[in-house]
Recover the amino acids of this structure.
């Protein structure tokens, strides 16, 4: 036996590769933002790994519900994205994203819901146990995505998908009740016109003999009742007498049947717990989702949408109006659309062109109240609100012709200041009067970013404007040698040198490696 610490885990090629992600800034495209200008909702066009990293600083611990519907790795090529990733690369694609998603979840009330099918579901479960903690696994929903048997299936007609559910903290999370169904309420009747309203009758007898559990009850017609041998009344003799006096015991229409307890609809829980069996009748199916696509985009139907009712069920359970919802594999925009129409705040990330061709027009229709979908009708949604459209900023640094990192020319002064704030853990918060206050980490700790040259005189001036107890980090292209250690409360550092090595620059798509590798392998095998 070795002493090496062993743990139960899933391993795969490339699992230990560490990514040093660049914390990019997000740039709003005001021409694509829509509706209420004060709306906080975000539609982000870009790779979700970099986009999630970009959100981390502002949104860590704030998202109540994450829903993701990643490419299933089914091996079939869809028009809108490459789903043909091999198992290890698929796991490598998912893990770093889950790790950041975990940081974004609200620490006590957060939950993440992940759609997945048979191909990767069991691998994903083990991976999620590792990322979110096995104790935080809540359950797996089985969603009936297809409502009729596929007779052309090779072996078995697979009619369901899974939705894995993890909590940020299983001890503190709570889920809402779903509305009671009309069938549930229909079981309650009122044959004796009881003024307390409809009721259902329940058993008064339980198994096992109990001391004082067997005694005679006198019915309204004088008939005597007792429990059979080996059973007991669930109430004491005194309590049962009281219940009879309050007309809470039912002896049947003829008043001489075996007694039962009246349970009033007004006293039952106003709602029902969700179970794991999500039928297409209740939450929709793939065809319904496709029909929704045809209403929204008759010319260019998105291939793998989810029905709006499915997302509504998740949001109903996991959130309340005003909560933040995030989907980092947005597809046609279903999660953002449903979140918007149900009063949740939302962030959607999509790297395909359909961020522009599908998500954007869909959300505009939602804001205008004319998406034409059944859920809007059912909710009485008339439009309102708005969202902001963002792109990921390019990498802060790029290599020049000599292979040295330099600041990308697309960065203006404001972008550079915002980016350096992110790198150094400051909140970008430019001061209206003091030009050297670009951001702060506390009320007394500031950052100043400039591409100019700083002289000792300039530094003296900045220092004279600082209050006692304040500190400042200056990020500058170059500075006079006398600036170094001139003041105990001012640190001067050079960009880009100060951030080199902290993360990977000039890397735009963390999927490309994976997809390219798969393509390269395919080409190799074609050539062979
Ligand atoms: C199955 S679809 C999601 C469908 C969505 N639930 C709907 O109802 O329309 C998966 C989406 O993830 C997107 N995607 C895949 N990899 C991504 C990445 N690295 N960053 C952002 N989006 C990505 C794909 O472009 C695709 O639109």
């Amino acid at each position: 036996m070795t002493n090496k610490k062993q743990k139960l885990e899933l391993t795969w090629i490339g699992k230990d590769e560490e990514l040093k992600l660049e914390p990019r800034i997000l740039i709003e495209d005001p021409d694509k933002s829509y509706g209420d200008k004060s709306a906080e909702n975000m539609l982000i066009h870009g790779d979700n790994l970099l986009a999630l990293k970009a959100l981390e600083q502002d949104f860590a611990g704030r998202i109540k519900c994450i829903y993701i519907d990643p490419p299933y790795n089914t091996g079939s090529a869809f028009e809108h994205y490459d789903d043909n990733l091999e198992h290890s690369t698929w796991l490598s694609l998912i893990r770093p994203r889950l790790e950041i998603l975990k940081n974004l979840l609200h620490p006590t009330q957060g939950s993440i819901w992940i759609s997945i099918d048979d191909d990767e579901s069991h691998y994903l479960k083990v991976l999620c146990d590792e990322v979110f903690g096995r104790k935080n696994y809540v359950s797996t929903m089985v969603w009936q995505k297809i409502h009729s048997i596929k007779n052309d299936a090779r072996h078995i007609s697979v009619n369901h998908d899974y939705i894995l559910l993890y909590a940020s903290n299983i001890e503190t999370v709570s889920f809402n009740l779903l509305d009671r169904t009309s069938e549930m309420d229909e079981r309650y009747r009122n044959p004796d016109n009881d003024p307390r309203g409809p009721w259902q009758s329940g058993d008064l007898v339980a198994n096992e003999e109990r001391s004082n559990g067997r005694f005679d009850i006198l019915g309204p017609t004088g008939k005597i009742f007792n429990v059979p041998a080996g059973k007991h009344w669930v109430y004491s003799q005194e309590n049962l007498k009281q219940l009879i006096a309050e007309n809470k015991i039912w002896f049947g229409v003829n008043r001489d049947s075996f007694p039962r307890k009246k349970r009033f609809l007004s006293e039952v829980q106003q709602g029902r717990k969700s179970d794991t069996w999500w039928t297409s009748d209740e939450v929709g199916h793939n065809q319904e989702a496709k029909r929704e696509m045809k209403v929204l985009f008759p010319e260019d139907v998105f291939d793998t949408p989810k029905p709006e009712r499915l997302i509504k069920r998740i949001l109903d359970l996991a959130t309340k109006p005003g909560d933040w919802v995030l989907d980092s594999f947005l597809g046609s925009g279903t999660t953002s659309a449903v979140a918007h129409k149900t009063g949740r705040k939302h962030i959607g990330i999509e790297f395909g062109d359909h961020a522009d061709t599908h998500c954007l027009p869909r959300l505009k229709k939602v804001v205008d109240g004319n998406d034409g979908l059944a859920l809007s009708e059912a909710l009485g949604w008339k439009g309102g609100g708005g969202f902001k459209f963002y792109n990921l900023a390019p990498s802060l640094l790029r290599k020049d012709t000599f292979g040295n990192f330099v600041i990308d020319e697309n960065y203006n002064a404001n972008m550079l200041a915002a980016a350096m704030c992110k790198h150094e853990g400051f909140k970008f918060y430019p001061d209206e009067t003091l030009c050297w206050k670009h951001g702060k980490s506390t009320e007394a700790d500031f950052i100043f970013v400039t591409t100019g040259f700083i002289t000792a005189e300039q530094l003296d001036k900045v220092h004279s404007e600082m209050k006692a107890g304040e500190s400042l980090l200056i990020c500058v292209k170059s500075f006079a040698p006398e600036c170094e250690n001139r003041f105990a409360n001012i640190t001067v550092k050079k960009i880009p040198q100060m951030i080199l090595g902290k993360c990977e620059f000039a890397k735009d798509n963390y999927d490309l490696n994976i997809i390219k590798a798969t393509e390269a392998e395919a080409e190799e095998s074609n050539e062979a």
